[in-house]
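Take a look at the protein record below and flag anything odd:
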Amino acid sequence: MTPGVLFVVATPIGNLADASPRCVDTLRNAHLVACEDTRTTRVLLTRHGIAARVVALHDHNERRAAAGLIAALREGKNVALVSDAGTPALSDPGAFLVAEAHRAGIRVSPVPGPSAAAAAVSASGFPAEQFFFRGFLPAKGGARRKALEALEGPWPVVLYEAPHRIAGTLEDLKARFGDAREILIARELTKKFEEVVRLPLGEAPAWLAARAERGKGEFVLVLQPGAAQTAGSLDPDAVLEALLEALAPSEAARLAAKITGTPKNRLYRKTLKS
């Protein structure tokens, strides 16, 4: 039996009109739609008259749900993986299912589309030959401030943040990078009450507090690139330790080597000992 295909489908980050024709066709023709929240995904499906079978796949059940979806794929069924908004597996569930599909020899096919990170970088005006996608910082203040130490570099840094933590994160960014460093704040991207503003970090807390509704919604932050660091100007072990809080050892070692100029192999060996 020929296995099915796992389609990794990017869906709108707010405005439902951003669903591409290929996205809609893929969802319509899939045997199963694996989604973070079935209620959220059904809104999109209903908008396009799609009566697909939906299966919940989220942070708390991903391993269990993945087993059933891999079995369906092996039986020849096509599965569309979506998240609540944007591209799956980027600060959202889905990476485990995709990895299992690769291990099972199942074809994985991306259906590209909306991405909050790419949208925010494009609207920032910062030079972006490359950018560092950090996603969500640790929730606790001490761990968050420690993670910020690894973000300095000559590239924009993209952060996601929840409304109940945005004020504290802006204060921590200001304390770490100074009042003059600029930041793009993108709130409720593509939605009715979208706001996109670029301003110095010293002004960011006041901007947020100026209107009560600015404390609501989802946020994407883009931090202005810093000055290029010379080799040896950063503590490679501290950078590696901070990156390991969010990245796999090999990726953390690769980025730490790029940031500090330290050989990647030495940093990777250190991850194996920790």
Observations:
- The chain has a mean pLDDT of 91.
- The two ends are 44 Å apart (CA to CA).
- The longest strand covers residues 182-187.
